[in-house]
From TrEMBL:
Keywords: Membrane, Transmembrane, Transmembrane helix. InterPro entries: DUF3667. The chain crosses the membrane at residues 93-111, 254-277, 289-316, 322-344, 365-386. Pfam families: DUF3667. It comes from the Bacteria. It comes from Thermomonas fusca. This is DUF3667 domain-containing protein.
Length: 387
């Protein structure tokens, strides 16, 4: 009688894999209870760097489908977004964030720092006649005017309000010096000596007198601790003027460094302005916000191209010539493309007639330019205190 075949023992079932965070049995690459991934976060540095690029900048193949229409097709990306074709392009906020940070980082590396006069100057302070004061004043104003002209149409244009404020400070200091010299002449006494202590301070006045932390401090309607804080900030900014005189690039870095933060605040405000301008279009605020993000992303991209053209011109045509002329034409065309692009974008997205579009474009542009100037000045003042 044959023996029955010997059966191999049944294999032991594999232990059930459980989430290391909450202990629930796993059914896939992520825990369905707490959401923790099965793969640990202790991975090679290259993988983590890729995660940062993907989560923060979302840099993948979509960037190559996004940048060309962003630059060359006004309103195209916005209309694609409204039509529901969104996943094929970089999202509006990530596009704006990446281009803005990159553009003004490149601007800090490539632009030279101008020397800005924030108050009194040696020539005006040492002048002993009215004619000498006027000569020194006119020379400083001409220098600032030349500097302002060179900023127009570039990323450094955000510093124009600071240049204008410096010019106004020069006029005020010159007027004070002229008044002091005329009073001395009328009294028959020698011209007053230059105020050497004021050369590295802000030209701040309170109660028609020069600000002084002890003798003439700010005294507002705010509580005492707030006034003390304000006076401390004015003193700190005043002391930082000495650093700015020794390191002019610090002013450029403060101005350009303030722009991204300023734009992050102003983009929602610009979207609100669009909402008011196109109130009867009955569009959601988020739609106007997408328009604002795409328009600011384009401006950052265009400024980045202008900076790159300037770098190429300095590298390939440092001595001028036909190649330098070509680069100058390209830069001019890029600058001219900015207002034309924004006008075409507004027309195509909101689909109104040309007269109404042009009117709203002019009003929005003027109001936003004024708002941007004040915002940049405020950011520069904060940066001057915080540096």
């Amino acid at each position: 009688m044959s023996q029955p075949p010997v059966r191999d023992p049944d294999p032991q079932p594999a232990p059930e894999e459980r989430c290391r965070n909450c202990g629930v049995a796993l059914r896939g690459p992520h825990c369905h209870a707490c959401g923790q991934p099965v793969k640990g976060l202790v991975r090679p540095l290259g993988n983590l760097f890729g995660d940062v690029l993907d989560s923060v900048f979302d840099l993948d193949i979509r960037v190559f489908r996004t940048l060309p229409p962003l630059f060359a097709k006004p309103g195209f990306l916005t209309r694609e977004y409204f039509a529901g074709r969104q996943i094929r392009y970089v999202t509006p906020f990530r596009l704006f964030f990446f281009l803005t940070v990159l553009t003004f980082f490149v601007a800090q590396l490539t632009l030279d720092g101008p020397s800005i006069n924030f108050g009194d100057g040696d020539a005006i302070a040492r002048a002993t006649t009215v004619a000498e004061v006027e000569k020194a004043r006119d020379a400083k104003l001409a220098e600032l005017a030349k500097l302002k002209q060179g900023m127009v149409g570039t990323a450094a244009a955000t510093g124009i309000p600071g240049v204008e404020a410096g010019a106004q400070a020069v006029r005020e200091v010159a007027a004070e010096r002229i008044a002091a010299l005329q009073q001395a002449q009328a009294a028959g006494v020698p011209p007053p000596a230059a105020d050497r202590d004021g050369e590295n301070t802000l030209n701040v006045r309170f109660n028609d007198k020069a600000w002084d932390e002890r003798k003439n401090p700010l005294d507002t309607w705010l509580p005492g601790f707030a006034d003390r804080w304000l006076n401390a900030q004015v003193a700190r900014a005043s002391n930082n003027i000495a650093r700015l005189r020794q390191d002019p690039s610090a002013f450029k870095d403060a101005a350009l460094g303030a722009v991204p933060t300023t734009l992050f605040v102003l983009v929602p405000i610009f979207a609100l302005m669009l909402k008011l301008a196109y109130f009867f279009k009955r569009r959601l605020y988020m739609e106007h916000l997408v328009v604002a993000l795409h328009s600011h992303a384009f401006l950052s991209l265009n400024l980045l191209l202008v900076l790159l053209v300037r770098v190429l011109a300095l590298w390939l045509a440092p001595d001028g010539g036909a190649l330098a002329t070509l680069f100058a034409w390209i830069e001019g065309l890029l600058i001219a493309w900015m207002p034309a692009y924004l006008l075409l974008m507004q027309k195509r997205v909101y689909a109104q007639g040309w007269p109404m579009t042009a009117l709203k474009y002019f009003v929005l542009g003027t109001c936003y330019s004024v708002l941007l100037s004040f915002a940049v000045l405020a950011s520069m003042a904060i940066g001057l205190v915080a540096m």
